[in-house]
Amino acid sequence: MRTKVILLALAVAALVAAPAFLSPGLVNASIQMLIAALFASAFSLLCGQAGMLSFGHSAYFGIGAFATIHAMNAFNGAGLLPTPLLPLVGGLLGLVSGIAAGWFATKRTGVYFSMITLALAELLHALAPHLKEIFGGEAGVSAMRMPAWGFSFGSNVEVYYLTLGWVLLCLLLLYLYTLTPVGRLTLGLRENTHRLRFLGYNVHRLSVLVFAISAMFSGVAGGLQALNIEAANYVVLDMQLSASVVLNSYIGGVKVFLGPAIGAALMSFFGYAVSDLTRSWLLYQGVLFVLVMMFLPDGLVGEFAKRIREGRFGLGWERLSAGLLFAVALVLAIVGFVCMVELAQRFFSTDYRSMIVGTPWPPVTLFGREWLPFSPVTWGLPLGLMAVGLGLLNFASHRLDPERGGVS
Amino acid sequence: MEHLFVAVLNGTIYGLLLFMVSAGLTLIFGMMGVLNFAHASFYMLGAYVAYALSGVLGFALAVIVAPIVVGAVGVVVERYFLRRVHRFGHAHELLLTFGLSFIIAELIKLFFGNFPVDYRVPAALSFAAFRIGGTDYPVYRLIMGAVAVAMFGVIYALLTTTRVGIVVRSAIFRPRMAEALGHNVPLVFMGVFGVGAALAGLAGALAGAFYTTNPNMALELGVLVFVVVVIGGLGSLEGAMVASLLIGVVTSLAVGIDASFADLLGVVGLGDWARAVGGPLTLQVSSLAATIPFALMLLVLLVRPSGLFGDKS
């Protein structure tokens, strides 16, 4: 317990100190990471703790964003709602829409629930371009961050601290929520609704409550996003955002409290870091998600936490060497796969197709080397790396698994 | 009158197309309890495979080969992906297919680019079947409708009259019992998954040529197919048929209506008030056509939660 508190305090201190060491671009990326982390945590309250998988959470994020933008324009950062308090509007509208949508959606459970949330989000997405007064059509709605409380909110460092404050506060509230009786009942929704009903709880009302709270925090995240970019467009209601929050949360692990937040922060950081290098980031994200689903069903953070709990980090020599082999094999397989995807991406791109004139087809440049389209090295090298990597992975995982005769 | 006829005919054929995709989805759900998120991706895959092959094999052969390829992909997905995560529960299976649909869409973008490809009806088939109300009615639409109807007939006959059909139905109804009686239920699952994928692929290969073939087609159709399956009742083939036709015809009719709620309120003398309020009240029904299926679905879920023909709650 004490190590946990110390670790958390260190993490918060690092987050507070971060802008001093980061370039403006990285500060912006950190803001995005914080917002993604809050959104994923809000989403996971619903899908991880209550076991209700929503495929339309971008709707509440988007509603929060638009509500905040309109509040920014209406109040000009003064009066009742100075700039730092604007995400409250997003949270409020998120809560209201969450109650309305949740009342419909939680009438059913399981896949039906997922389908209803998806349909509601698509309904809003289909309707939004036609409601120009609210969603601003193609151009969207924009606003200005006004100075308040002695801060100008002109630099993104100030926006960073504002976002950090809101995200930490919301995460704390979400954590405290899990400790309340309602928070415990939320787990009951996931585990056994029949039993809850027999115990005399109103399951539908409870589900609506959880749904609304999740939508409320999603709305706050949307509001922070609107404050950060000073604009909102109906593209934010797109399926893409709902999909990425599902992927990120499960990659982190929805059953550990900080899993989704860490997963989302990591994924949006990688998205920022590699978006200049590759166009296939979404593909890698999808592949990572499927691999996590198949081999680490508790998610990356969840698996890590489980191993620490079970004390499975014994440092025997054999175990260490097997672990090292596993890591090397993983790197080999990843390098092979990335080479393969990037080569394919370049050979099939429209730029390359327009370069083809006559027969010898020109090579493409990748990692500072020229690759010919029909040379065996071009395809043999990545394939070979992948094959060797996967073979070694298989071998190493056998040695690491005590149930299959490996060292423990 | 001609407009109405054309709208209903278009809607019916679009509905039949929806049915071709949703048939596999609803059968797979009824049998394995898995809502296959990647099902509409099979539809898209069918269109792209047929497009890629039509340059080499010609259109007719491509439309025949594409479903076989897509069916094989479906078999691989069931055997090597879904079966692995089966022990983690249904939510995990749904998420896995969700991830796969994501990967398929990204791979399509990688190989074919993030824009519509030039996949079109061959010249030999793009002539008018008949003239009505001054416009030609393309024969290709009728072909799509006929293929869907033929497919429904074949599946229905297979399921109701043959021995294979009986085994499949029993595996859907009581998988444990069918297994205890010595039938290879996992093989049946794999087969139905493959056939379902192949049907979606066939629909894609046919429809991709007529409508547009782009990387978003899976999502656009996929959401509609889920709506169809929920309205019809998960697991019911007849329900899927009725709901597909309903959605197809209703959306097709709605596109042709220029009236708005304000006009409706005008009947009782509130027209000017509604126009002054603006917003949703002055939206034309035609621009709301895309939202009607979702509204219909919410209505069905409120009135009859298990769907029109569903019995599982």
TrEMBL record, chain A:
Keywords: Cell membrane, Membrane, Transmembrane, Transmembrane helix. It is a multi-pass membrane protein. GO terms for cellular component: plasma membrane. It comes from the Bacteria. It is found in: Cell membrane. InterPro entries: ABC_transp_permease, LivM-like. GO terms for molecular function: branched-chain amino acid transmembrane transporter activity. The keyword Membrane applies. The chain crosses the membrane at residues 30-47, 59-79, 85-104, 111-128, 159-177, 198-219, 257-275, 281-301, 322-344. PANTHER family: ABC TRANSPORTER ATP-BINDING PROTEIN (PTHR30482:SF17), HIGH-AFFINITY BRANCHED-CHAIN AMINO ACID TRANSPORT SYSTEM PERMEASE (PTHR30482). This is Branched-chain amino acid ABC transporter permease. The lineage of its organism: Bacteria, Pseudomonadati, Pseudomonadota, Alphaproteobacteria, Hyphomicrobiales.
TrEMBL record, chain B:
The keyword GTP-binding does not apply. The keyword Transmembrane helix applies. It is found in: Cell membrane. One of its GO terms (cellular component) is plasma membrane. GO terms for molecular function: transmembrane transporter activity. CDD domains: TM_PBP1_LivH_like (cd06582). Keywords: Amino-acid transport, Cell membrane, Membrane, Transmembrane, Transmembrane helix, Transport. The chain crosses the membrane at residues 12-37, 49-82, 94-112, 142-166, 187-211, 217-235, 242-261, 281-303. It is a multi-pass membrane protein. GO terms for biological process: amino acid transport. It holds the Pfam family BPD_transp_2. Belongs to the binding-protein-dependent transport system permease family. LivHM subfamily. This is Branched-chain amino acid ABC transporter permease. It comes from Xanthobacter autotrophicus.
